[in-house]
Design goal:
single chain, alpha/beta, 8-stranded mixed beta sheet, 29% helix
Length: 241
């Protein structure tokens, strides 16, 4: 279902009380970077894992991001804006059937969307304290912006340092990273891992040998779904720091 600046895919299963929401934060969509709700292929990038999540009885929602695909200013790589977009998408999805909705939710993002969900981890409790974010998964996240070529010209914050997602010790995080990624090099995720592990973040990093920026989501989709299922079930996350 397309609705009000977001894409919402309700579960195909019957009513389930306490149905959790998965907030998908999509990557940059080619050169035009159009929003899913205005795209000819709104499910782009979701095919490897979407049906499995629906079979779990989860609702899946994808934000468009503020101003995306419209003339003028876009909040590209603005962590504060992205975090609000992700959290607001969850609130919108829950309003679709509030009697069945759970306060539990998880976030899952790729590349630019990885930046968004890591920022959502930092700010979700402030934006929507009635919701409970229990896990965040990111594939090849744009995180260590200082090391990324061209990042300085994208963030609306004058200093890209201020757009590096801050570590959070209360929310488990999974990062999947391809070793052959030429867009978000594995070295940037290694930097994030070193920094976050030193600060006690419950972080798991899975290095995927030979995976590229484009293939890492498909290759790791079953791993990510299983990890998110464990978080929604209340299982503790083990760090591999």
């Amino acid at each position: 279902m397309l609705s009000g600046g977001m894409l919402f895919v309700p579960t195909a299963r019957g009513p389930v009380v306490g149905r959790p929401v998965v907030a998908w934060a999509h990557p940059t969509r080619a050169q035009t970077n159009v929003a899913p709700s205005s795209s000819s292929d709104p499910l782009l990038g979701m095919q490897p894992w979407l049906s499995t999540m629906i079979n779990h009885g989860w609702d899946v929602v994808a934000t468009d991001y503020a101003e995306l695909g419209t003339p003028g200013r876009q909040e590209y790589l603005n962590g504060l804006s992205e975090a609000h977009d992700v959290v607001f998408s969850v609130e919108a999805a829950r309003s679709y059937h509030p009697a069945l909705a759970s306060a539990k939710w998880v976030a899952w993002g790729h590349s630019y969307g990885g930046h968004a969900v890591l920022w959502a981890a930092a700010l979700a409790s402030q934006i929507a304290p009635s919701l409970r974010l229990v896990g965040v998964a990111a594939a090849a996240p744009v995180a260590e912006l200082v090391q990324l070529e061209g990042a300085a010209g994208q963030a609306w914050e004058p200093s890209v340092v201020k757009q590096i997602p801050p570590p959070q010790k209360n929310i488990p995080v999974l990062i999947v990273q391809g070793t052959n990624d030429s867009v978000v090099p594995a070295s940037t995720t290694a930097t994030l891992r070193k920094s976050w592990c030193a600060q006690g973040v419950p972080l798991t990093v899975e290095w995927v040998k030979g995976a590229t920026h484009q293939s890492v989501v498909k290759v790791t989709s079953s791993t990510v779904v299983a990890w998110l299922a464990q978080r929604l079930a209340g299982d503790g996350a083990l760090s591999n720091c």
